Automatic annotation (TrEMBL):
InterPro entries: AA_ABC_transptr_permease_3TM (IPR010065), ArtM/GltK/GlnP/TcyL/YhdX-like (IPR043429), MetI-like (IPR000515), MetI-like_sf (IPR035906). Pfam families: BPD_transp_1. It comes from Actinokineospora cianjurensis. The lineage of its organism: Bacteria, Bacillati, Actinomycetota, Actinomycetes, Pseudonocardiales. CDD domains: TM_PBP2 (cd06261). This is Polar amino acid transport system permease protein.
Length: 267
């Protein structure tokens, strides 16, 4: 119904019946009405939201979410850089191996990968001399699923940064006696960082939100904690709003950090 109303307003505006300011006013009224309806709903207990927003289980979930996010970013950067260099190599075997990795881990949904690592004991009951379930904890399964998946995306981000540097600059560095490693460190990396950082910031935010998928295996993240709480008190919407509030806070802080990094790289 609301979409039909907005469509009708847009048609009228184009025909000159409704001004730009008139359309904006109507949108403000509609959004305000929706917000008032949600806030004043008798089915939404704001006391519960305030009670659990800074509760110990929720804060532990926030901490686990941040640990998973940074661990995933670290794994993705290290493995992604290796894959990017393999894609740039002149060795066809290395190129094929890196391409196959990227194709596979980008093609399989993240939640499938997380569940696979969590159930690895069904395929390999033991790892060495220890039971697989004792080694692959829910947290480790989540980190493996997130990290290996993210490496495939960051490999392309890093490779794009490498490709943004003109090949002639590298050839000139090699001509004056630099080794390939020195040319990469002195010529390629400083310039490619400026291309990589904006995309890296976006990937960080995607990782942060993607950690919510860990809840399917009870990985202890923010969403897992919210589910555990509303599984006991049945305040589903209230706890989902608690989780939503924390995700918005974390994403907003990440966005501020991304802007500072971009300014630093551009200076």
């Amino acid at each position: 119904m609301m979409l039909d109303t907005l469509h009708t307003l847009e048609v009228l505006r184009r025909k000159g019946f409704v001004s730009r300011w008139g359309t904006g006013a109507v949108l403000v009224v509609v959004v305000g009405w929706l917000a008032h309806t949600v806030v004043t709903s008798p089915n939404l207990d704001w006391v519960v939201i305030g009670q659990y927003f800074f509760s110990t289980p929720v804060m532990e979930g926030v901490g686990t979410t941040l640990v998973l996010t940074f661990a995933t970013l670290g794994i993705g950067l290290v493995l992604g850089a290796v894959l990017a260099m393999m894609r740039q190599a002149r060795n066809p075997v290395a190129v094929a191996a890196a391409s196959a990795y990227i194709w596979f881990f980008r093609g399989v949904p993240l939640v499938v990968q997380i569940v696979f690592w969590f159930n690895l004991a069904l395929l390999f009951p033991t790892l060495g001399f220890a039971p697989t379930n004792a080694v692959i904890t829910p947290f480790l399964a989540a980190m493996l699923g997130l990290g290996l998946h993210e490496a495939a995306y960051l490999a392309e981000v890093i490779r794009g940064g490498f490709l943004a540097v003109p090949r002639g600059q590298v050839d000139a560095a090699l001509t004056i006696g630099m080794t390939p490693a020195q040319a990469t460190r002195a010529i390629v990396l400083p310039q490619s960082v400026r291309v990589i950082l904006p995309a890296l910031g976006n990937q960080f935010i995607l990782i942060l939100k993607g950690t919510s998928l860990v809840s399917v295996i009870g990985g202890g993240d923010l969403m897992t904690r919210a589910q555990q709480i509303y599984g006991q008190n049945y305040q589903v919407i209230a706890l989902l709003l608690v989780a939503t509030g924390w995700y918005l806070v974390l994403v907003s802080l990440a966005g501020v950090g991304q802007r500072f990094l971009e300014r630093w790289a551009a200076s």
